[in-house]
């Protein structure tokens, strides 16, 4: 059960309403999930959603690679809400279904593209070891450039924030989502 209060647009403060309208007018067209939790703190919500716009829609990474990174975070945190939406976006962006499924069940995927392998290795290493080796860093730079490594690091951090918000506020996945991690717990 979600720890968020019932959502009532008419009860929003002017600052909350401004951020809410910004969210609805932007590319997300939604204030669901963690965004709704963030609205409790409108200044935080405004700044976090701005960072999210860069991470999700303004990254130098190809969508296939940014969605790969997001899925690694979602699987790491077993974040149903994140997984539900982004697994479909990743598929549409060209990430093979075999890679998506391997990440979901917690096994190392077999990659057909070296940039995907480099992004996956970087993401897993950073999430699990809280650091990246020189070899992993250099492979990421080779495939996505230094700007791409900055963007990749930002994506991993931002979607970790989302996963943490989902966990803290016990935000359920949208209706119709399958329980992606029940068999992999």
Structure report:
This protein is mostly helical and 185 residues long. The chain has 2 domains: 12-57; 63-168, Up-down Bundle (AhpD-like). The protein is built from 8 helices and no strands. The chain has helices at 14-25, 34-38, 42-57, 63-77, 80-92, 97-105, 114-129, 134-168. The chain is globular.
Short description:
The chain is mostly helical and 185 residues long. The protein has helices spanning 14-25, 34-38, 42-57, 63-77, 80-92, 97-105, 114-129, 134-168.
Q: In CATH terms, what is the architecture of the largest domain? A: Up-down Bundle
| Net shape | globular
Our count of helices gives 8
Integer average pLDDT = 93
Structural class designation: mainly alpha
Kindly state the percentage of residues in helix: 55-70%
Through-space gap between termini: 20 Å
Strand content: under 5%
| Oligomeric state of the chains in view | single chain
The name CATH uses for the topology of the largest domain is: AhpD-like
Q: What is the C-level CATH assignment of the largest domain? A: Mainly Alpha
Q: Which regions contain 5 or more consecutive residues with pLDDT less than 50?
A: none
* Major pleated sheet: none
Spell the H/E element sequence: HHHHHHHH
